């Protein structure tokens, strides 16, 4: 081929590329002073302008309609410095439609490296932004929803504490004349709520402060750094505008006035230390008092917080696991999570009893609260022996690390009146620490388990551990795992699977745990060790033997996990048949992990046919996780599909995930299979699962995995 024809071909390809860019990519070119000198057809079409409208206009013409001035200033600095700018803008099209976009502005140079122009590229993110807004907005009132209320209140209270501001929370319960949907009608109720929302939105005081719809006709208003006179004026103004409203029921043309109750709390954070839970508790108590006093009443009292703390059970007022997971889902910046475990809890129970352990736990909580008094972090109670501390201010990471290392993790003698001085328990804690935004609960849990295995007081999760450290950890894990295998210390814990609508337990899933030095270790590491050591089959047999032992002695249904590795082993299949011959299979469900490991579905089908002969049910685990093959699964004789937990966790925050789950549910119903949702960690998720029609649920909202003894099940020590 001649060089001339080659050149023509290259030019032709370049022309096609330019044409495609012009048609599909939102780009424009700016001169070195920021004036538009060229713009793509795609960009013009997106904005709704003609080329003559934008040529020779300053770049601000495109992005300054709604753009934050800080963003504009940052763009200016970037243009002047010669660096590339990446950021997000909010602006307006010609037809006044608002849009969001990611924007990149990069300098262009001539052959002498002199800056001659800038290339600007936009990526439309409006859809994602709208989905984000929908996840925090109530559909009827367009106010913020309850989910966002918890996040916003915690954040603003923390900001108020840092600045010494007055933090006020106003709860309003608006009582429609006919609250009963049977006589009133759902549509009428929605109209009434919409009417209330419009009145609140147009109130001169309320419209300058964030409003939240909590439930039904209950609303909340958060006010920052306003005095008592302003708060009273706001409340009186709202009462006046609401109580003059009249509402008609579906069966009466006679309008009746609405009534309202209010509970208010205002805390001067410069004088009092208070948590978001305590603020909400006081406001709800005041609202209840107002209702008891009659119609159109409001209570402003603030109780003595120190006395209130003394009277309440310390553990009960702490945020729980559900709240931690909710906070982590909405985490938007680099944070620090510290997981803490009270060591040797079973030994403490046997020596001091459950009441003694409760006193020990309360003492440790007070110790933890003492280091959090400035409200720069949140303390959570996950269960009787595990706690979490979430720190979102990066400047405080070192401070809290030092406090944990040199205070909390030091051996502590509990000196309570419940114990004689000579009998006072020495209490230790272990910690797993992780940093980041995503997966920090998992990462902190991984290093907590590692710290327990290595008998260290704490470990920090690091992505960039060097090879030597990893090898040492692997050897340590292998030692602990092998000892547990020899000692018979691989044990089953059981987590209930419940009917989504009724909450009734239908069966238990058996989950492997390792007991080491009186500690219960999660399977993150030892399962890998079992595969590395080629003892996975021995591990599976030990686990299965103990599960069948519990199954044979109790009137319960049990789910047993099996892997593709188990199914391709002739010896393992013979062992399973031996167990089924001995104990039967009517109450057994085998749960098969649906993953990329499955190379031959005929092997899976053969196992299913064998298990069905014994009356067993079959479930597919982690369905929808990315490897699911609908066609192959449909050909198998499956009874249950367990939806992957990573999908369930995002049901209330990701529209795309919601659509995927709906598709799987439809698929399952069409194939006559029941569905199970795992990782159901909150009431909101449980309600969503019921709404979607998922048959069964499993997760910490119902119960964490427990030992047979904790569940009151009979078993032999094997």
List the keywords.
718 residues, alpha/beta, eight-stranded mixed β-barrel, five-stranded antiparallel beta sheet, 28 strands, 44% helix
Fold and architecture overview:
The chain is an alpha/beta fold and 718 residues long. 44% of the residues lie in helices and 23% in strands. The protein is built from 26 helices and 28 strands. The strands form six sheets. Strands 20-21-23-24-25-26-27-28 form an eight-stranded mixed β-barrel, surrounded by four helices. Strands 2-1-5-4-3 form a five-stranded antiparallel beta sheet, with helices on both faces. Helix 19 (536-553) runs parallel beside helix 21 (570-583). The relative contact order is 0.05.
Summary, kept brief:
With 718 residues, this protein is of the alpha/beta class.
pLDDT < 50 runs, ≥5 residues:
179-186, 249-255, 308-313, 464-468
Query: How much of the residues is beta strand, in percent?
Result: 15-25%
| Helicity level | 40-55%
Which value, in Å, is the CA radius of gyration?
31 Å
Question: Structural class of the secondary elements?
Answer: alpha/beta
Overall pLDDT confidence:
81
Distance between the termini: 80 Å
SSE map:
Blueprint: H1 3-24, E1 26-31, E2 36-39, H2 41-47, H3 51-54, H4 60-63, H5 69-81, E3 85-92, E4 98-109, E5 115-124, H6 126-135, H7 146-163, E6 166-175, H8 181-184, H9 186-202, E7 211-215, E8 218-224, H10 228-243, E9 246-247, E10 256-257, E11 259-268, H11 276-293, E12 297-299, H12 305-311, H13 321-329, E13 335-342, H14 345-370, E14 378-381, E15 386-391, H15 397-408, E16 412-413, E17 426-427, E18 429-436, H16 440-453, E19 458-460, H17 467-487, E20 490-499, E21 505-516, E22 519-521, H18 526-532, H19 536-553, E23 558-562, H20 564-567, H21 570-583, E24 588-593, H22 601-613, E25 617-623, H23 630-635, E26 640-643, H24 645-648, H25 655-670, E27 674-677, H26 683-692, E28 696-697
Helix pairs in contact: 19-21
């Amino acid at each position: 081929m001649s060089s001339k024809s080659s050149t023509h071909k290259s030019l032709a390809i370049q022309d096609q590329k330019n044409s495609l860019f012009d048609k599909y990519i939102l780009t424009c070119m700016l001169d070195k002073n920021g004036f538009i000198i060229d713009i793509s057809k795609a960009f013009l079409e997106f904005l709704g302008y003609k080329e003559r409208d934008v040529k020779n206009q300053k770049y601000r013409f495109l992005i300054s309609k709604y753009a934050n001035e800080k963003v504009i200033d940052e763009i200016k600095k970037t243009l002047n410095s010669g660096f590339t700018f990446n950021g997000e803008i909010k602006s307006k099209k010609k037809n006044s439609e608002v849009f969001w976009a990611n924007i990149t502005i990069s300098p262009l140079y001539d052959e002498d490296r002199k800056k001659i122009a800038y290339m600007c590229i936009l990526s439309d993110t409006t859809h994602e932004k709208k989905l984000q807004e929908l996840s925090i907005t109530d559909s009827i009132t367009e106010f913020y929803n309850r989910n966002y209320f918890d996040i916003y209140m915690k954040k603003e209270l923390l900001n108020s504490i840092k600045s010494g501001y007055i933090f006020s929370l106003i709860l309003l319960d608006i009582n429609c004349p006919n609250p009963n949907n049977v006589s009133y009608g759902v549509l009428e109720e929605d109209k009434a709520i919409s009417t209330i929302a419009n009145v609140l939105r147009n109130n001169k005081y309320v419209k300058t402060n964030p409003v939240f719809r909590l439930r039904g006709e209950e609303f909340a208003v958060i006010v920052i750094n306003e005095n008592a006179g302003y708060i009273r004026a706001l409340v009186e103004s709202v009462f006046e505008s609401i109580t003059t409203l009249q509402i008609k029921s579906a069966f009466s043309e006679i309008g009746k006035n609405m009534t309202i109750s209010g509970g208010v709390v205002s805390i001067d954070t410069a004088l009092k230390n208070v948590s978001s839970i305590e603020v909400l508790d006081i406001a709800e108590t005041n609202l209840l008092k107002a209702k008891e006093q009659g119609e159109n009443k409001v209570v402003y009292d603030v109780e003595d917080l120190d006395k209130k703390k003394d009277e309440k059970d310390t553990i009960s007022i702490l945020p729980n696991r559900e709240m931690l997971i909710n906070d982590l889902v909405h985490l938007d910046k680099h944070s620090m999570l510290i997981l803490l475990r009270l060591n040797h809890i079973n030994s403490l129970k046997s020596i001091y009893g459950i009441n003694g352990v409760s006193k020990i736990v309360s003492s440790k909580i007070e110790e933890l609260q003492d280091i959090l008094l400035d409200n720069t972090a949140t303390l959570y109670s996950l269960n009787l022996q595990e706690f979490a501390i979430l720190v979102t201010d990066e400047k405080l990471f070192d401070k809290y690390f030092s406090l944990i290392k040199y205070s909390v993790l030091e051996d502590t003698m509990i000196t309570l009146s419940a114990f004689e001085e000579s009998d006072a328990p020495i209490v230790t804690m272990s910690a797993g620490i992780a940093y980041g935004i995503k997966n920090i609960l998992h990462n902190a849990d991984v290093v907590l388990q590692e710290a327990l295995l290595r008998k260290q007081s704490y470990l920090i999760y690091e992505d960039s551990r060097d090879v030597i450290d990893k090898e040492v950890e692997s050897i340590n894990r292998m030692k602990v795992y092998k000892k547990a295998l020899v000692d018979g210390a691989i044990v089953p814990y059981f987590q209930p699977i419940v009917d989504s609508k009724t909450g009734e337990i239908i069966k238990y899933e058996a989950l492997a745990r390792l007991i080491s030095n009186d500690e219960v270790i999660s399977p993150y590491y030892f399962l890998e060790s079992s595969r590395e050591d080629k003892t996975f089959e021995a591990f599976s047999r030990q686990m299965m033997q103990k599960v069948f032992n519990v199954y044979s002695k109790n009137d319960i249904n049990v789910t047993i996990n099996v892997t593709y590795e188990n199914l391709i082993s002739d010896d393992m299949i013979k062992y399973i048949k031996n167990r089924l011959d001995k104990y039967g299979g009517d109450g057994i469900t085998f749960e098969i992990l649906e993953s990329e490991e499955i190379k031959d579905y005929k092997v899976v089908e053969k196992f299913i046919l064998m298990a069905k002969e014994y009356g067993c049910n079959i479930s597919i685990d982690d369905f929808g996780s990315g490897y699911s093959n609908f066609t192959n699964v449909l050909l198998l004789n499956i009874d249950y599909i367990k939806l992957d937990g990573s999908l369930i966790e995002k049901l209330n925050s990701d529209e795309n995930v919601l659509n995927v789950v709906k598709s799987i549910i439809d698929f399952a119903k069409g194939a006559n299979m029941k569905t199970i949702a795992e990782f159901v960690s909150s009431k909101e998720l449980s309600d969503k699962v019921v709404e979607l029609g998922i048959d069964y649920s499993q997760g910490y909202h119902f119960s964490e995995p427990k030992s047979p003894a904790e569940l009151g099940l009979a078993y032999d020590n094997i």
